[in-house]
Every structure is written in C-alpha cells, then in structure tokens.
Amino acid sequence: MNKKITKIPVCRCTYQEGKLYCLAKDFNLLFSIDLQDGSVDLMDAVPGEDVLSSYLSGSIAVWNHTLILAPNKTKKIWLYDLIKKQWNGLPIKETDCRESGGFYQTYVCHDKVFFAGGGYPAILCLDMKNNTCEYITEPYKEMIDRNPDSDYLYFRPNGVRIEDTLYLASCLDNYVLTFDMASLEHQWIEVGPDGYTYSGIAWDGSHFWLSPRSNKDIIRWDGRENVKAYPLPDEFRQHPEYVWDACFDGRQVVFPAVNHEKNLQLDTEKDSLHVYGEHYTLFKRFDNGIVIRQTNNADLTVTTEKYSVEKYSVEKYSERVFPVSIEADQLRRFYEERNLSIYKENTLYYETADSQILSLKGFLNFANSGFQHRPDSEGTVGQAIWEKIR
C-alpha cells in the first residue's frame, strides 16, 4: 500500500548551523529541514492555536539557541528554546492595527531583537538579556501624518540590513525609512517621484532596488540622490493591484509577484528586465548568502554561493532541491501527542480513485467547503475527514 504524503508550503524560515527552521503556511507547525540530507523534523506547534491556522507568525529569527517568532495572528512574541524544547510567550500591547496587525520583519542585533511592524504601528525592540520590550512609534506617526487617508500596510516583509542600519520601504508613499538599531535613531528619505509607493526593497552591494506596490516603475537607488526607473512590462502596467516582493539572489534582482503567477528578474550586468513564468511563494536571501525559494509545488530550492569581495563574482555555486513533505501517519502521531487533531479514520486525506496524494491546498479547500461529497464523475471513493479541535 502506498504511503500517503502531504506537501508543506513554508510560511517563514530562518537558518542556523546547516538547518532551516520553518513555519508551515497553512498548518500550525514548526519544523526543521536538514540541508545535508533533506530530512524533515517535526518540532512543535505554537501553543494555544488551532491546527489549521495559517501565517501565525510574520517572520522567524534565531538568537543563540532560541527561535523567535514575530506575531502576526498571535498576540504574543513566541520564543522556542531549541535545547529545552520549551515555549515562552511574551504578550504585546493592544493597539489599533492594520490587517492582521503583524510584524513581518525580524532582525537580531547583538542581544536585542527588532520587529518591524507591517500592520502594527511600531518597531519593537526586545532585549533578550533583560527580557524587556521597547515600543518605537515615532516613525509610524510621521508616516500616518503624511498619509492620513491611507489604511494600507506600513511595510511588507522585505527589508535591507547593512551592518546595524535597517532600510524599510514605505507602502504608503515614496519614502524609505532608515533605522539605526544601535542608537534607535531614524530618518525618512524621499526616493522616486511623488505618487509612488513601494512593496519591497533589496540591496545588490551597490544599489537599492525598490519594487512597486502598484503599476509604477521599479526604482534603482544609490542610497543618496541618484535614481533610475525601470518601467514594468506592458502586461503588468494595466493592473494597479499587483504587488511585488524584492530579493537579490547574488546574480540578479528577483521581483516575485505576490498575486500573479509570474515573476520579474532584472539582470544587473545587462541592465535588462525579463518576465518568467515561475510563481514563487517564498523567496529569501540570508546574510550568509544562502538563497531559498519555494514554488507552488512546495519544493524548496536552496542555493549557496561564495563571492569575491571586490566585485561579487561567483567563486562557488551549488543548488539543491528539497521536497518538503511528510507522511500522513507521522503528522497524525505528531498532533495526537499534543491532543490536537484534524484526522478521522487514521488519515488526513479526501481520497480519490486516481491518486494517493492530495495537496494541502486542495485538502483545505475541500475541508472548508462544508464537507460536501464531490460528484461521482470526479472519481470520489472517500469522504471528507476534517475535524478541528482546539
């Protein structure tokens, strides 16, 4: 009998000592991926949350042997001790937020951790030694004063860190926030024409790249006064609802579309913009040069590159693909040990005559449709098996 498996799209992840520590996108699941053999280790679930919870955390980072989960749909900063395998939750202040009120960027600076609010109107500074938290709200007040009628997110998940300085691109106007994590001082810099708004920012070693939140141009910025605009291809200029992330993968700048099945890539050497048919659900580069990207099929591609200091030329390049999947029985046992269940009759799946595999997305779509049987013409031989227990 074939073993049933489910693929696990990654929501957020961080890297330490040869492992990726990940949060599942559609499950309450913390797990790791060993980058040597690709093995997946189910670690734990965020306390007090449903199994079928999506985007619980806006970002994840690691300090010493502690994983740090920034709040998105949770009301706490969650800390997970990798040695003791224990959770510690730090509540955050309630305030007026936008969308989920999440924090989509986390940066570790010495013994402090900084959370940049995407929907929450503050940068949080968590002192890991003293277990205290400072709320820095002035940059958000200034942003709101400039844009009193806008209710969109303040910042999206893209940010740039250069030494102790953060660069965050405003989603509300044509400004970039610089924030010094050592002095806690900040400055707003106007970049690009009036009326522009940004959804991402990346750094290629010499220039910043700002992706548009609508159908405006991509902006290259030298960090001072010089900017250059790159118009979007015609197929995207007619649609103001598109939002683009931004990431420099070591060779070119990639702009994954958040709500489109394609992505844009800009070759920095040829200074040309191209459209590609791949839809990335995750695209991230760590400070050590490792780049990870995940597509709709949940396969995770990990790229490691070594650069010469002078011209960022590639000296060594390797790429591996990891199928991020687990067996249903393993997942069942994992949740049963925690008195959580989305199972019935020993399986997670709505079975069909054609396949032993059902994607997680397909399962969730079916489970949320009201437990209705599909027509016999679609090959139904099973039944809906969703049960959710807090």
Task: Put the structure in a nutshell.
With 390 residues, the chain is mainly beta. 8% of the residues lie in helices and 42% in strands.
Determine the structural class based on helices, strands and strand pairing: mainly beta
Strand content: 35-45%
Rg over CA atoms, rounded to whole Å, is 22 Å
User: Strand tally, please?
Assistant: 30
Q: Mind explaining what this structure looks like?
A:
With 390 residues, the protein is mainly beta. 8% of the residues lie in helices and 42% in strands. It has helices at 138-146, 234-237, 328-336, 360-367; strands at 5-7, 10-16, 19-24, 30-34, 40-44, 57-63, 66-71, 76-81, 86-91, 103-109, 112-117, 123-127, 132-136, 160-162, 165-169, 175-180, 186-190, 198-203, 208-212, 218-221, 227-230, 247-248, 252-256, 263-267, 272-276, 280-285, 291-295, 299-307, 314-323, 325-327.
Which descriptors would you attach to this protein?
single chain, mainly beta, four-stranded antiparallel β-sheet, 30 strands, 8% helix, disordered C terminus
Write the layout of secondary structure elements.
Layout lengths: L4 E3 L2 E7 L2 E6 L5 E5 L5 E5 L12 E7 L2 E6 L4 E6 L4 E6 L11 E7 L2 E6 L5 E5 L4 E5 L1 H9 L13 E3 L2 E5 L5 E6 L5 E5 L7 E6 L4 E5 L5 E4 L5 E4 L3 H4 L9 E2 L3 E5 L6 E5 L4 E5 L3 E6 L5 E5 L3 E9 L6 E10 L1 E3 H9 L23 H8 L23
Antiparallel strand pairs: 1-30, 2-3, 3-4, 4-5, 6-7, 7-8, 8-9, 10-11, 11-12, 12-13, 14-15, 15-16, 16-17, 18-19, 19-20, 20-21, 22-23, 23-24, 24-25, 26-27, 27-28, 28-29
